[in-house]
Amino acid sequence: MSEAPTALERSLGHTFGDRGLLRRALTHRSHDPEGSNERLEFLGDAVLEFVVTAHLYRTSGRNEGEMTKVRISVVSQDALAEVARAVGVGEAVLLDAGEEETGGRDKPSILADTLEALLGAIYLDAGLEAARRVILRHWASLLAARSESPGERDSKSRLQETLARTGLVPAYSSQGEGPDHARVFFATVSAGGRVLGSGTGTSKKSAEQAAARSALDLLAGEEGEDA
Q: At a CB cut-off of 8 Å and minimum separation 6, what does 157 contact?
């Protein structure tokens, strides 16, 4: 009788036939140096880059330089950690007591590396098409957002620069709701006693970026009215 899928497998959208691969992918070197996920991480990094590159080539119509900028942004450690938090990697990774005590379950490097290892394990467990489905399922919104403005400065930086011209500083407020494996964050940004924008995301950072984009849109609209 096969084992019931774990919460992480349900969130990822892949149930492992080889449970040993799943355990290996979740094993940080602090937990077991000889049986860690580092080789799977190396493989998963290559699988992710290939799937993202092929997707951009087929769908974006952008030139090589623009596709490279998008790819770099969506396979960065920050992007990987954001996806990892959304699917619940931190709750499932195997760490030693020392790494646990120092907040290892939410360290971007550990989250990103473990997610890459899981992608490598999915590829070995069920092939490239299975890995592609999982990647596109969880990277779709990132790919869409980054493809709109490859290489553009992040929205929080742009908003801070915009407000600095009038001597204002943005202030962010955020809160999360829902279970750890499917948490949604809501953020607002204010300046000068006025709420300028709000947004949601799968992490505090992405929600604040969405709020900043909303504020930039508002300010751009007001400038157009004054022109």
A: none
CA 224 to chain centre: 34
Residue pLDDT, tens place only, 50-75: 999 999 999 888 889 888 888 988 99
pTM of the predicted structure, to 2 decimals:
0.68
Distance in angstroms (rounded) separating the CA atoms of residues 197 and 70: 25
| Residue whose C-alpha is closest to residue 112's, from 143, 74, 84 | 84
Residues marked active site are found at 45, 116
E strand or H helix at 128: helix 128-148
Comma-separated ranges of CATH 1.10.1520.10 domains in the chain:
7-148
Q: For the segment 100-126, what is each residue's pLDDT rounded down to a tens digit?
A: 888 889 999 999 999 999 999 999 999
pLDDT-derived band at 2 (thresholds 50, 70, 90) equals low
The CATH number of the domain covering residues in 155-226: 3.30.160.20
Q: Which CATH superfamily is domain 7-148 in?
A: Ribonuclease III domain (1.10.1520.10)
- Every domain of the chain with CATH number 3.30.160.20 lies at 155-226
Q: Which residues contact 44 (CB under 8 A, 6 or more apart)?
A: 115, 116, 117, 118, 119, 120, 121, 123
pLDDT higher than threshold 90 for residue 78: no
